[in-house]
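Final paragraph of the annual report: two paired records, presented back to back.
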Amino acid sequence: MVPVFWLVVGLLLFAMCGCARVQYIPVETVRVDSVSVPVPVERKLSRWEETKLHYGGFALLAVVVCILIGFGRLVYRLKK
């Protein structure tokens, strides 16, 4: 029963405050003549930049650290 009460209160508040203040502006008053201006185009990203953007710097660092730890353990086992 409580949600119905708040729904009615919300609708009444919207009817009293929200609907009366909406003012529509005709489209003709908003239009402005536009001049085409050349916009610089972004360059294509390199493979490294795309990889870093896709995977993130910290994730890539974590992968490199895990590979180095695995390689270090392998070398340690072979020397033992």
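The closing record of the year follows.
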Amino acid sequence: MIARQYVQKFEQLRREMASALDEEIPAADREGGSTYVLFNGRHLSQYGGRHLYMFSVDEDLGIPDGSQVILKSDSDEVKGQLLAACVHN
């Protein structure tokens, strides 16, 4: 009986979480994120079909390491992951 209660509670929480995400994802897409200008791009390596690039920016990004990002140019859009952001003086 107790196990059934846990399963029911879990299922309720899962439905609530899915519902909340269904609302939050479109809102995040509509509002978008911050835009930064990247320059001095350098291709550092390639491994298993993945590429590692390094860019310079003029400001602290304030984006946590590991965040998903979208890089856009005039002609292309690529999804990626921010491995690390460092400020150099």
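Residues 39-81 form one domain. This concludes the annual technical report; the extension proposal builds directly on these records.
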